[in-house]
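Comment thread on ticket #2218

A.B. wrote:
> Attaching the input chain for the structure job we discussed in standup.
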Amino acid sequence: QVQLVESGGGSVQAGGSLTLSCAASGLTFSNYIMGWFRQAPGKEREFVAAISRNGGRIDYKDSVKGRFTISRDNAKNTVDLQMNSLKPEDTAVYYCAADRTLVVHTSRLNYDYWGQGTQVTVSS
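C.D. wrote:
> Ran it. Output below, let me know if you need it in another format.
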């Protein structure tokens, strides 16, 4: 049974930082592209960042480039999202997702497994 468990969410003031972590089990982690998505109230779930199987290819949503950093540790089966210079518009539930294909995708439709999400709240 595949499980993705996010942690690290919380409440911060604008300009602050948080690091989200996702621990994966029940799958061969190094065979999956890993992604982070987020969903704000009343909005669609949107792509934030993704990293290829070996970490050689990374994509970011334009609005988080230069502020967020995705990384993975295939030995520990974890993927992290370091978030700096947070803004109120970053407030959302953040989800970790796994994609078994070979190409980094930004569409949530391509991802096979999802975590339960962790809340990030940024106050102004």
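A.B. wrote:
> Thanks. Noting for the ticket: The radius of gyration is 13 Å.
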